[in-house]
Design brief:
By secondary structure, the chain is mainly alpha-helical. The chain has one domain. The protein is about 80% helix and about 0% strand. The chain contains 9 helices and no strands. The chain has helices spanning about 1-5, 10-30, 30-35, 40-50, 55-65, 70-100, 105-110, 115-130, 130-140. It starts with a helix and ends with a helix. The relative contact order is 0.09.
Length: about 140
């Protein structure tokens, strides 16, 4: 929520941004009857993998049916990776907000922030280029 509060110029703007998180958190409760009636439905399975709704949905499903272990492991892995990414992204947005103190921060500033783009580009480079480069290097050695 810190990354939503930083660009906001007033407390009211920050509260409006936090509403999105609140709505995501209550989504499993709004779909409670669907999940209870069909715990192995597509909606229940998808909500098990969505990081913000995974904990509530997974607990509901576990109490109703035997959830396969691979689904729980996959959900935990997705949750762990998304937490790491969101923490890093929030830190970059927070840093940008601190540097722009006194100015109204716009969504464009957040998205096009040099810090965010640099982090995103380096993350993509590490994920896409480096594994390919390492496999090429190992082929040459062999």
């Amino acid at each position: 929520m810190a990354c939503v509060a930083v660009p906001a110029s007033t407390v009211r703007d920050a509260q409006q941004g936090a509403t999105v998180f609140t709505m995501l958190a209550i989504l499993p409760m709004m779909l409670l009857m669907i999940i209870v009636n069909a715990p192995n439905s597509i909606i229940a399975k998808v909500l098990t993998y969505v990081p913000y709704t995974a904990s509530v949905t997974a607990l509901m499903r576990i109490s109703l049916v035997d959830v396969p272990t691979y689904e729980l492991v996959a959900s935990l892995a997705i949750l762990t990776v998304s937490v790491i990414i969101v923490i890093k992204l929030s830190a970059k947005i927070f840093r940008t907000g601190i540097l722009m103190y006194g100015q109204k921060m716009k969504l464009k500033d957040v998205i096009l922030s040099r810090f965010v783009l640099t982090w995103f580009a380096s993350a993509c480079f590490r994920l896409l280029v480096l594994p390919h480069h390492d496999s090429e290097r190992q082929k040459r050695k062999a």
